[in-house]
Amino acid sequence: MSTGADARTTAPQCPVAFPLRRPGRPFPPPEYATYRGGTGLVRSELPSGPVWLVTRHEDVRAVLTDPRISADPSKPGFPKAGRTGGAPSQYEVPGWFVAMDPPEHGRFRKTLIPEFTVRKVRELRPVIQQIVDERIDAMLAAGTSADLIESFALPVPSLVISSLLGVPKADRDFFEGRTRVLVRLSSTDEERDKAAQALLRYLGRLIQIKQRRPGDDLISRLIAAGTLSRQELSGVSMLLLIAGHETTANNIGLGVVQLLTNPQWIGDDRIVEELLRYYSVADLVAFRVAVEDVEIGGQLIRAGEGIVPLIAAANHDDTAFAAPSEFDPERSARSHVAFGYGVHQCLGQNLVREEMDIAYRTLFARIPSLMLAVPVEELPLKYDGVLFGLHELPVTWK
Question: Do 287 and 179 touch, CB atoms closer than 8 A?
Answer without folding.
Answer: no
